[in-house]
Amino acid sequence: MLCLLWVFLVALPAAAQNSPASLTQRRINEIAAALERAHYQLIEGTGARHSGETLPDYFAHLMAKLPQETPAQHKARIEGYLAALSRVTSASAPLRRMPVLNDNSARNRQVWQRAVQALAELPGYTSRLRTEWPHEAQKLSSPAAKPDSFDSELAHAVWLVTTALSALRDAQP
Asked: Comparing C-alpha atoms, which of 85, 166, 160, 83 is closest to residue 119?
């Protein structure tokens, strides 16, 4: 009897709170804010993006050492990117599946599909980047190191954050 009471008083409300059905505008805004913070740290706050530079051009040199940047600063910057991706991956977990929508219009569903698809892909990229990072960190000190899959994976992860943020700006519960 006590187990059944516990289920109704504790387990079911907790599950409902984490389910896609409980999505509110406030929760959308909280996740969008986490995406905005990551976007700033990955793109706008890096000092690596040139004025007027397109994102594909920026992605091409995302991993490059900045002028006047020491090897330790360069490594710390890349580790900051990975930390930002880890934080936003955790914060956006509730939106990896399509939520139950109040506004079921075709336009709103398309917006949500873009956001959910990007956020569903993000954990895989973040995990691969974290796994590959120790190997990549050793290559930073080599002047002959050439861009490889790590660079393109990082660029794609940043693109996923940007895509999800853009979609959530237009999303309605």
From this structure: 160
3-class state of residue 103 by DSSP = coil
Tokens of 46: 């890096």
Dihedral, CA atoms, 153, 159, 163, 169, nearest 10 degrees? 130
Instruction: Single out the residue of 28, 165, 14 nearest to residue 95, CA to CA.
Output: 28
Report how far residue 147's alpha carbon sits from residue 77's, in angstroms, rounded to the nearest whole number: 17
Give pLDDT tens digits for 39-75: 999 988 877 777 888 877 787 777 777 788 888 888 8
**Residue 113 to residue 145: CA distance in whole angstroms:** 38
Residues of the chain with pLDDT under 50: 5-7, 12, 15-19, 21
Q: What distance, in Å, lies between the first and last C-alpha atoms of the chain?
A: 37
Torsions phi, psi for 75 (to 5 deg): -60, -45
Which one-letter DSSP state was computed for residue 63? Answer: T
DSSP 8-state secondary structure symbol assigned to residue 9: I
Look at residue 24 and give its three-state secondary structure. Answer: coil
